[in-house]
């Protein structure tokens, strides 16, 4: 009797498995905050964070300076001098979390972009890109770590571009 019940239960579960992915696929996309698509003016804030001068070339303001330059050359937004003038605030930073690598704990860095509503200071969206430390001897050279830093920053800008060119239908 137990074998029959177990077999029936397994059969029932097996019949439901193909349905689970289709249920997930039917979930509609949540709306993107309308301010993100409508914004024309942005203020870029340097949230600082974990820039490590031993890890990369430059000063802690490097993240802010390079992100500011990338957004300026993109031409999508007018860069303004204060949050009061802006439709959005882009808050850029480097953060880190602990990662176990072999027998030691090392920082795992990421570029973080928080998009805030300047009127309420509410985070509307956040984007994160990890700065990978590829295994191997190549990462002992600062120029290779700098390239990974640049790639992480470029991915954040690409993520932002992809987010802001979404069709208006998705935002409704």
Topology:
Layout: H1 2-16, H2 19-25, H3 34-38, E1 41-49, H4 62-74, E2 78-79, E3 88-101, E4 104-116, E5 123-130, H5 142-164, H6 168-171
Parallel strand pairs: 1-2, 1-3
Antiparallel strand pairs: 3-4, 4-5
Describe the structure.
This protein has 172 residues and is an alpha/beta fold. It has a single domain (31-171), classed as Double Stranded RNA Binding Domain, CATH 3.30.160. The protein contains 6 helices and 5 strands; from the N terminus they run αααβαββββαα. The chain has helices at residues 2-16, 19-25, 34-38, 62-74, 142-164, 168-171, and strands spanning 41-49, 78-79, 88-101, 104-116, 123-130. A 5-stranded mixed beta sheet has the order 2-1-3-4-5, covered by helices on one side. Helix 4 links the parallel strand 1 (41-49) and strand 2. It is globular, with a radius of gyration of 22 Å. The termini are far apart.
Beta-strand level of the residues, as a percent range? 25-35%
* Strand arrangement, major sheet: 2-1-3-4-5
Radius of gyration: 22 Å
CATH fold call = Double Stranded RNA Binding Domain
What class would the helix/strand composition place it in?
alpha/beta
Put the structure in a nutshell.
By secondary structure, the protein is α/β, with parallel strands linked by helices. The protein has helices at residues 2-16, 19-25, 34-38, 62-74, 142-164, 168-171; strands at 41-49, 78-79, 88-101, 104-116, 123-130.
List the defining traits of the structure above.
Double Stranded RNA Binding Domain, five-stranded mixed sheet, 172 residues, alpha/beta
